[in-house]
Amino acid sequence: MQQTNLAQANAVQATAADYGYLRQLVFGLSQNVLDPSRDYLFETRLTKLLRNQGMTRLDELVRHLRVKRDPPLERAIAEAMTINETSFFRDTRPFELLRTELLPKLVEARRHARGLRYWSAACSSGQEGYSLAMLMQEHFPMLASWDLRIEGTDLCAEVVERAQAGRYNRIEINRGLPARFVVRYFDHVGEDWVVKPEVRKLCNFRQANLCAPTLPFSRITDRFDVIFLRNVMLYFSHETRKTLLAGIHRLLAPDGILFLGSSEQPADPSIWTSVLAGGTCYFKPRQPS
Ligand SMILES: C[S@@+](CC[C@H](N)C(=O)[O-])C[C@H]1O[C@@H](n2cnc3c(N)ncnc32)[C@H](O)[C@@H]1O
Question: Residues lining ligand 1, judged by CB closer than 6 Å?
């Protein structure tokens, strides 16, 4: 009831210019394009932030920001507007295809280097990264002595902290995880389930903006074998997608694999070969001829 009142108060107080200001702020910091038809989301998503600032209305927040730049507060607004929907083994098929076809080939190709690097770009609260770790532990025990690394990055500090903690509630655990995985790879702690250390040690989560002038990992010479960049580009403009995918192309091994979300396509198809297999689609970097 109180929330409804707050929303109603905001509906009256926040002007089109206020919403425009907030949309522009979010775009500047995360490149997420928010549609004006969804302006109501500012009310619901920023309620806690407003309270923490001792404010009750969006127009107060906008006035505050117009008077004085406040980078931490601006970042908190951009992060609060992200959509962090995720689950273990989301969409199933990319993981099945990795297990049955793609990983056996990669393992063979890396048998001398004895290492594999994954990147869960826009990892949200970590389920994607931990799914990859569990997949390897469950189906590729011969990799136990290899150098395996799963990097997870996300813009939003709150979800990165959750990924680092590897702690999930009953609803999250019930989404996508086979029961035997829960038993084998999680400890039941209080009301929650916590990823076991042997899974967690493969994963490293940190905050990073995919649209920053320098892409995360740009300074690292080892390229990634597998990159998951799923369900994030739908919030970006065509230009942002193109720039991001050109950077991703440089970070992927020549025989590496890119998975996008099931409704996503590369912005510049000329640098990618798309492969349909196992009821899904993945992308391989095309090399300049
Ligand atoms: C819908 S979730 C997708 C999570 C996971 N990849 C999946 O498919 O289940 C999108 C994530 O992208 C993150 N995100 C949005 N803009 C970003 C940016 N500019 N840089 C990095 N992450 C971003 C959000 O914080 C959110 O956690």
Answer: 30-32, 82-86, 90, 122, 124, 128, 154-156, 159, 209-211, 230-232, 235, 261
